[in-house]
Amino acid sequence: MSSIHEEINKIRIIDGHEHIDPMEIRKKNKVDFFGLLHYLDSDLITAGMKRGILSRDSKIGVEEKAKHFLTFYQKTKNTTYARTLKTAVHDLYGMDDWTVNGILSLNEKVLAATNDNEWYSKVLKEKSGIDLAFTLAYTTKVDFSLFRPIMFLDYAFKLRTRKDIQVIERDSGEKVHTFKDYLSAVDALLNKFVNEGMIATKLGHAYWRTLKSSKPTFSEAERLFNRLLSSFIDEPMSQQESVVLQDYLIHHIIQCSIKYDLPIQIHTGHHETSVSGNGNIITNSKVTDLVPLLAAYPDANFVLLHCGIPYHQEYLSIVKNYPNVYADFTWVYIISPTIAKQILHQMIEMVPQNKIFGFGGDYNFVEGTYAHQKLARKIVGDVLTEKVQDDMLTEKEAVEFAGRVFRDNLIELYKLKV
C-alpha cells in the first residue's frame, strides 16, 4: 500500500448520495440477507432469475430463496456488484461459506444486525470512516448524527391524475384550486422540507422520461393542469400529453431550489433493471439533453450524478465548462472500476478539483456502503499514485485532491456543519 493510499484511508468521508432507510424502517421491514442484494439483484435478473423471487413479498421460504440465490450467484459472481456484496458480508459478518447452510447462517446474522440499534453507527462511522451520509429515503425524519435528508421531487412534477395533485396538497398543507395555487404549494413543500433539514433536491426523471425539457409558457402548462384538476373520474393523462406540464414544473422546482439555496442532484446515465420504470431506455438519460437547463440557470448549483455513464465523455466536457455544474462519482466505482479509473484520470486533467465529489455509495443498506467506500478509496488511491508517478501531481497535491473530493468540497457546496 502506497503512502497515498494510507492517507486516503484516514479521510473522514462525506458521503454524497445514499438510499438508506432510517433504522426503524429497516426493523419494520425485517431486513435479512436477501434485503441486502440491491444492485446485485439487477445482475441476477439479467442472468435469468425471475424478478421478485427473492423479495420479502415472495411466497417461497428462506431455504428455497438460498437455493435460487446460489444458482444465479454462480452466474454473476464475476461482476463488481457481486464482489462488493462478497466484501461486505465477509468483512462485516465473517461470511465465507457460499452454500445453502452458509446463506442460512448469514441470514440470521443479518436479522440480528437489523435489530441492533448501534449497527448503523458501527458500520458507517467506525468501519467505513463516514462522518455524514446524504440519504434519499422519502422522509426527512432521519438520524441527524449520521444522515442528512435529500428529497425526491419527481412526484411534484409527475402529474398524471387529480390524486397526484392531492398528494402535494396533503404534504405541503396548502389548498389547491388553481395552477397558481399549485405552484405555491410546491414552493411551500420545499420550504417545509428545508425547515426539516433537507439539504438538496433530487430529480430522478431519467428513470421514467427523457432529461430533455422544453420551456413552456404558463398558459400552456395551466391548460393541462386544469384538465387534471377537473377530472373527477380520475382518468389518467398519458406521459405524452403531460410532458409540457412536467417541463414547466421542472423549471419551477429549479427556481424554488435557487430560492432556498439548495443544490439540485440529477440522475444522469446508467439505469438498473431492478428499479427502472422506463424499460431501461438509456437514451432518456443523455446528459447533453440537460444543457439548455444548465445554461438557463447560471445561479443554480447542479450536481450531475453517476458521471453520466455511458455518456461520460460528453459529461466531462459539460462539467469542465459550466461553473454551476458539479461532477459526482456516486455509484460509479461499483458499475465498473475500470471506467471509474478512466473517468477519474480524465477528470483530474480537465475539471477544477473543487467541482468534483468523490463518493456516494448509492446503496439501500449500510453494508453495501461499507464495501463501496473501501473500493472507492482504493481506486482513487490507485489513480492518484499513477498521477504522481507520471509527474502530473506531487504527492502533497494528490493527498489534497483526495481530501477535497471525499470531504471538503461537499462541506462547502452543501454548507454542512460537521
Descriptive account of the structure:
The protein is α/β, with parallel strands linked by helices and 418 residues long. The protein is built from 18 helices and nine strands. Strand 6, helix 13 and strand 7 form a beta-alpha-beta unit. Helix 5 packs across helix 17. The longest helix is centred in the last third of the chain and has 24 residues. It is globular and about 60 Å long.
Tally the helices: 18
Sheet having the most strands: 6 strands, parallel
Task: Give the fraction of residues assigned to helices.
Answer: 40-55%
Oligomer: single chain
| Poorly predicted regions | none
Summarize the helix and strand pattern as letters: HEHHHHHHEEEHHHEHHEHEHEHHEHH
Per DSSP E runs of 2 or more residues, the count of β-strands stands at: 9
Layout of strands and helices, then pairs:
Layout: H1 3-8, E1 13-18, H2 23-28, H3 39-46, H4 62-76, H5 80-93, H6 100-114, H7 119-127, E2 130-135, E3 147-149, E4 151-152, H8 154-157, H9 162-172, H10 179-195, E5 201-203, H11 218-229, H12 239-259, E6 264-267, H13 291-296, E7 302-305, H14 312-321, E8 325-328, H15 332-335, H16 337-350, E9 356-357, H17 366-389, H18 395-413
Parallel strand pairs: 1-2, 2-3, 4-5, 5-6, 6-7, 7-8, 8-9
Helix pairs in contact: 3-4, 4-6, 5-17, 7-17, 9-10, 10-12, 11-12, 14-16, 16-17, 17-18
